[in-house]
Amino acid sequence: MVLLCIHRFIPAQRTFRRCRDLSPKPTIHNVSVHLHSMKPQEGHASENWPIYIEDILHRDLQPRGQHRASGLLIDPDRDRNIGADYIDERNMSVRRKGTPRYIARSVCIGQPHMQTHSLDGRPMPTLTGEAKLLYVQAYGQERYDQFAEKSPFTCHGAIPPSDLPDPLPVFVHRPCHDAESIFWTMFAAILHAQPASGTREPWASKRVAELWKKLHEHEIPDNPADYDDHREDIFHTLALPWARYFHPDLRDVAQLLYDIRCQVAPEYEYWTPRPPDDYLHEALQRLILQYLVEHRDKDIALDPDHLRPTQSAYP
């Protein structure tokens, strides 16, 4: 259910982003998607409405150009933007606001981050089997090909630099930073999730407690020049120790999160040419769709009354 909710939000955010009317930093606290039934009425059909994952998985698709609204995206911060013709995302007061634990690293410091992940990357995920068939039925082969790598040497159609530029480019808040916020939201939710039939731990392991402390206590610095983002340690963890952060019943989801982590790790502002605005949203949608298809009959129920502990027995 967590992944379904995340996948619902990604295409909704892509749609609203084009309208420039959405809070730039989505988190579980300020944006939600509520699905509901809507009777077909004049004016509700559009080729721009997002297609929800349930419709894709069940092949319950309207003809292209006749998609109908099937949900409400609720954004309590939206009133800040009403009446504004354009949001100046170079403005410091806009670009360094957000929920600290979920804010993208570059947004947090108001400049492109300077981590070495930006010198390497992962290509756009390819879909296989039923997942690719469902994608093409929903969005068309043209969109699939649009985001496909045209060369074995590119990632998202771009080439990473051999070194970071000096001086750094001017920071602009881009949709890729919103995708990173989605990753942080997923990471926190799944790290904390307790499977209904899974073993309940009395205390968190020391490594989980230390990781949660870094995430939970992260703050937006007053002076970014002297700041170290301790969440960055997460991007240096290899696949095997990464899986040990999560409940054993959620190891497959942990691998999905690891793949998403590899996509959001670089600062793509340095790459040539800069990838399309919604390339990371596309990558996340593909990864989650492939996972949901492959785990269609392996849904893991979560315990709504208990969260996994994040405090260690030893200080």
TrEMBL record:
The protein's name: Fungal-type protein kinase domain-containing protein
Highest taxon, organism lineage: Eukaryota
